Amino acid sequence: MDQAPAPRSASAAGINPPPSDGFQSLVPDPRLRMVLFSFLMAALFMATLDNQIVSTALPTIVGEFGQLERFGWVGSAYLLATSAVMPLYGKLGDLFGRKYVMMAAIFIFTVGSLVCGLAVSMNTLIAARVLQGLGGGGIMVSIFSVNADLFEPRVRARYQSYSSLVLMASGAVGPILGGTLSEAFGWRSIFLVNLPIGIIVLTGLALFLPYRKPHRRPKIDYAGAALLAMAVTSLVFWADSAQIFGSLVAPESLAVIAFGALAAFLWVKVEGRVAEPVVPLGLFANPTIPLLLIVSLASGAVGIGSVNYVALYLQTTTGLSPTGAGLLFIATTGGIAIGSLTSGRLIARSGRYKIFGMISGAGSCIAFAIFSQLPVGTPLVFITFLMLAHGISVGIGQQVPVIGVQNAANPRDVGAATGTVTLTRMGGASIAISIYGAVLGAFMNHGAAAIPGIGNIEELTPTAMAALSPQTRALVAETYAHAFGPVFISMSLMIACGFIAACCVKNVQLPTARGTKPEAVLAE
């Protein structure tokens, strides 16, 4: 049997056993916990890296297969599949145990990577990316759920801050690694490199992660899972529909969102009647959870959704090359690392998390409000400082929604709750990207016609901009700066919604290993 082995003797090992009513780690040996945590971080890095690594290799892929009109779908297919299955994986982990559910997700992702590397056309590559996403969504959800089994609530905050660092590291090195691998070994190598990692992680989890069988009879809510997948897929597809149908309010786009709304309505009806709903509606009975989901939504909208637009802003208004703009993001990545590690340790020490969600929202809101007012020619040192401040703010609040929701949810629903948090973060990013694009497009044409020698300003590459005369380049920069002002204001307003939600969260103290219940206290 693959049951968790009973410890020899807690007293013989020099460990005081926790009381029966307290938290007990799935893996009592702290050294083995660290080994397993390393495997989990390798899987997380692999799954999140794959959404970043493809960006710099896409031009090479299009050069081989053609079909430039399907350029965006190589990334969107992965995002759609990942978002659709996240809540389902969380629930499957609650029902069948996290070990085999997570191993299944890693296996699917690894097979998907192999198929991507062997793709013979753009269509087969897009289909393989869907298969990858079906595994990647399970990896991202299951890792945080397994962490909840390994570490007590306060200590968990520190280790989930390390998880946040892995997420940020994958975002930072992904484009660089994708370009390097595709240039040295061909674009297929960016997918095939996942095979040895996946095999090593699968072997490690099979050997060292105990299986904890849930004490309830598995009942899968197939109808609820299908309806939720349709609702989520429709929402993400609608967020990308401007590229396909020309507008978010085109008849076809409205039909997509109407279908999603109908699926969501039917999902609520189904979840209220089944014995084991894929996302228990009881989660939303606790007012803390909906508020933290709003925080997660806003965090994804600004923490993830803003990256591409900040990069475009840097290249069009400051004259930085793509490489220079990428190097400037070291400030943001470093800030996230500082904020995440600091807040993780402080939450572990104090047991309080509300204040960190408030600080995070306020910091990013102020940073983007200042960004919206920056004139052309602002010193790069000041812009770097703003990016650092924003990164620290994002890092401070990175793990707040996950920690808070896991603490507020019933222990039997931790997996479903974790999947819901992750889903809202990615959904917030997807929706925000489309909103930012619509705002930028609405303000871009103003003043562009007055620039001599410029036909379509949106077709200017950084290299073409560098070749313009100083006067023309200044006019182009002014046009972009004018358009980006409202974009940054929209970012500031979105994160302000998250700040307000964080302020409304009840101030609780996380329980210790002795299992004491968290009690609400008045915010100081």
From TrEMBL:
Main location: membrane
Disulfide bond listed as a keyword: no
InterPro entries (UniProt xref): MFS, MFS_dom, MFS_trans_sf
Entries under SUPFAM superfamilies matching the protein: MFS general substrate transporter (SSF103473)
Subcellular location: Membrane
UniProt key word tRNA processing: no
Occurrences of domain Major facilitator superfamily (MFS) profile (ranges): 36-465
Alphabetized Pfam families for the sequence: MFS_1
Keyword annotations from UniProtKB, A to Z: Membrane, Transmembrane, Transmembrane helix
Gene3D superfamilies: MFS general substrate transporter like domains, Multidrug resistance protein D
Residues passing through the membrane, by range: 34-51, 71-89, 101-120, 126-150, 162-181, 187-208, 220-238, 244-268, 289-314, 326-348, 355-374, 380-405, 426-444, 483-505
Membrane topology: Multi-pass membrane protein
Region annotation (Disordered) ranges: 1-21
Protein's name according to its UniProt entry: EmrB/QacA subfamily drug resistance transporter
Species, as recorded: Rhizobium paknamense
Organism lineage: Bacteria, Pseudomonadati, Pseudomonadota, Alphaproteobacteria, Hyphomicrobiales
